[in-house]
Amino acid sequence: MGDFEDVPTLGVEEEFLLTDPGTGAPAPRNAQVAETARRAGIDLQLELTRCQVETRTAVHSDIGELLAELRTSRRGVADCAAEHDARLLAVAVPPTVPEGYPVTDTPRYQRIAHTYGMLAHEQGLCGCHVHVAVPDRETAVQVSNHVRPWLPLLLALTANSAIYRGTETGYVSWRNIMWRRWPSAGPPPYFASLAQYESLVAMMHASGSILDKKMVYWDVRLSESFPTVEIRVSDIPATAEESALLAALIRGMVTTGLRSIAQNEPAPPVPGEMLHAAYWNAAHSGLDGNGLHPVRGSVVPYRDLLAELVDRIEPALRHSGDLAFVTDAIAAVGKRGNGAQRQVVAMRARRDVTDVVAELARATLEGCP
Predict the structure, then answer these.
(1) Which residues make Cβ contacts (< 8 Å) with residue 324, sequence separation at least 6?
(2) For residue 13, what pLDDT band results from cuts at 50, 70 and 90?
(3) Is pTM beyond 0.70 here?
(4) What does 323-352 look like in DSSP terms, one character per residue?
């Protein structure tokens, strides 16, 4: 085992957009699709708007098995959507002009819509959340401190929302720009302890900026349902393989953080202002641009930062058996582009958003059985 304990288990949640097969517009049919999925033995969750659904994997130790489930799940949900004349898209914002985002008819979602107004009604944003097992909540807070400097890099890697309302936004992750309007969204603060984390959450709840603990939308948060730390900075990746890559990198980061904690190595207290600047760079330019080094603050190409991250967590990736997969998957993204890069190429070919939708549809089920 060397410096590491057992390999942490992990699970992935993927949010998808339901769209009209002809126009690509958001299709408000999540309840019907979820019922069909239930009869097929697929646990499909409803999201804030009726145009969205969410899948949740089982708990895994092996990345290959996680990837296989992600692929099978995407195919199964796509088939269920097709029964209701809807197409499943792994995309973080609707690329076409939406007619509206009707809110899902549950008491909690209706309360959110009433409280937050247009924030809820302009939602339709799809992300990917990775849960990694940790020993306890106090450890989870310390892991958050170690992971937070690298969050902009994960956003740049998975960016998948360059086209919105039928036009190029000028950003690779328009979802991130929109998402951070919520009062509790964005990078988490640097926390000295679990008590400080819980005190801030209690203050936000008491003030009304969040309605419950599930509305702690920080990009690293403590799960209220599982013994995990949850990393949620990512756009929904275009392909299942990219979601598995994200999960493998995050597990490597968490494992490396756990080792640092065991060796009493503190996480760098990166200022929030620097993180916010790095977030904007990541959402604007992505892998093709420059980012801020997570510790030094110097300007570094994101591809160099990605290589540095892999070098940093390489011992953890070797220990989990993920190094070869991560290396190959990063090379594949570099060759074909991530979701945002695919969208821009498709859009610029004929200036026709239907080409973007078709490319996203291909990517969503790429490699799926």
Answers:
(1) none
(2) very high
(3) yes
(4) HHHHHHHHHHHHHH--HHHHHHHHHHHHS-
